[in-house]
Amino acid sequence: xxxxxxxxxxxxxxxxxxxxxxxxxxxxxxxxxxxxxxxxxxxxxxxxxxxxxxxxxxxxxxxxxxxxxxxxxxxxxxxxxxxxxxxxxxxxxxxxxxxxxxxxxxxxxxxxxxxxxxxxxxxxxxxxxxxxxxxxxxxxxxxxxxxxxxxxxxxxxxxxxxxxxxxxxxxxxxxxxxxxxxxxxxxxxxxxxxxxxxxxxxxxxxxxxxxxxxxxxxxxxxxxxxxxxxxxxxxxxxxxxxxxxxxxxxxxxxxxxxxxxxxxxxxxxxxxxxxxx
Length: 277
Hints:
Blueprint: E1 2-7, H1 12-28, E2 30-38, H2 52-80, E3 88-94, H3 97-107, E4 112-117, H4 119-128, H5 132-138, E5 143-147, E6 157-161, H6 166-182, E7 185-192, H7 200-209, E8 215-221, H8 225-235, E9 240-244, H9 248-254, H10 257-266, E10 271-274
Parallel strand pairs: 1-2, 1-4, 2-3, 4-5, 6-7, 6-9, 7-8, 9-10
Antiparallel strand pairs: 5-10
Helix pairs in contact: 4-10, 8-10
InterPro entries: Rossmann-like_a/b/a_fold, Universal_stress_UspA, UspA
Pfam families: Usp
Family: Belongs to the universal stress protein A family.
């Protein structure tokens, strides 16, 4: 059974993403591990040594009580959607979110992460923030990012961007396995620029390798890669966009505020981040 890590701060954005996580768990026949992290403020014990432990214990207890109060609400959401049979485990951890995500992924043998991102600022903070490098480079499992504006709907088409590298083929197979569980098809996009180094022979080789699979290959000549990806999602009815985290600079470019505004406003769809191995 697949194990899905769902980090949550119990916000509206996270609650919306929880619906996606539930449905994803249903489709891949998985179980959820709900992770809530909190950071205890740093105090200097020399100023109040007698109350030092009390302060920490009271803060931790308040976080636990809040966590305990929120769990039944999530279970009620699952029940309303007829998904209360999905197994849900819980982790309450203090400390840095990214560090705790890595720890949970390792200790709980996590296969996927599903998490919410809040609008334009959320995309910026996640993809361009100080934690981004750690997430992309340190979390080796696929991450399904859910914009706060994204309402759940049945996934019929998954978009996959590629550079036709051999490493990409491995990730495409992983996305294909997910697509089959969802009974979805894949549209594979390559944006061909003047500086392209991909031969027609390579493209035909890929088409031959996946000829019996529900995959359509599209090669679009254009110098504006980001805009072409946006048009691809918008006009090809893409429900989830799968992308490989090649390197940080690519995401810094792709999720620049001007582009992100268009992405979240016009097409608030989940983005599935794959990690090259």
